[in-house]
Amino acid sequence: MSEAPVAEAKPPRRQRVMSGIRVTGPLHIGNYWGALSNFVKLQNEGTYDCFFGAMDWHGMTTAYKSTVDVAPWTRDMIAEFIAWGLDPEKSTLFVQSRVPEHIELFMILANLTPMGWLERVTTWKDAEEEAKANDTHNLGRFGYPVLQTADILIYRGEKVPIGKDQTAHLEISREIIRRFNHIYKAKLPEPTPLFTDVPVLPGLDGRKMSKSYGNTMLLTPDEKTLKKNVNMMVTDPQRVRREDPGNPEVCSVYGYHKLYSTAEDLSWVEQGCRTAGIGCGDCKAKLFSNIDALTKEPREKKKELLNNPKLLDSIIDAGCEKARKEAQKTLGIIRSCMKWST
Ligand code: TRP
Ligand code: SF4
Question: How many domains does the chain have?
């Protein structure tokens, strides 16, 4: 059989990757291991067409009383994205609220999402009492998974890198999109997850790391904060005196060494701790210098962007414009499926 003429051989369309991070403050290392590091990896594989957003509407569902922080946090997030390796030339980096089509699609999808589906989502069900107590038992928060579905669908995202904790949300997204396809005889892609294995991260105080405990480690801390954080870390409580041998497995300093230090340094800690060969001060100093070295380049890159608001603005503007073009295209397809083109 003869081969197809070269002129017809179109390059295969690249699969779409879409994801984002909710804007709630400066990124911590949980955001990095759970999301950003994977975004960078997927971008650099070069086989995907990537869209990554700073999700400020999702931040608003809980931050609506202190909205003044949301814009600076959003800029900080985009600077952080770039500092840690997302490239605005390779990926489309956008701010959710700057692409109003998300909200238009949200409203369309809201009509075809049964309340029961949302009521069953564990992130809603299990947090209802807490939400009532802190005044976030609201429609925006209830509709969180619908907006998230609109985020994905507006770019016709096919692969969604998320942490395992987002499984239920993505399942709802698939159901809503399936329902859309069924009602309007459309063929929009049902997204599938690309799970990120998130290590259990130690909090600075030895408990599990959680924003609500206030024990998180920032992704790009300045030197002073880093010093403070390392000093805050709790060591093996049994190791009272310098000459007492310790157990690194119960020490949060060691937990952080596992994230930031080389195998060689790890065995130095292991050995030294168990034999009282090193003191906790030495151990913390080593950790400080390892984190400091690893975060130096991104820290400088981030600072450069934040100190040059014109440059950052132009990057954000260009990303949002690129995103908007695609979102408008999708909305056109969606309205024509619905026969609702006025
Ligand atoms: N819910 C995600 C988070 O907690 C953020 C998010 C919003 C998102 N929209 C999305 C993730 C769409 C993936 C796809 O950070
Ligand atoms: Fe923790 Fe290091 Fe002290 Fe051991 S030496 S208890 S690992 S800080």
Answer: 2
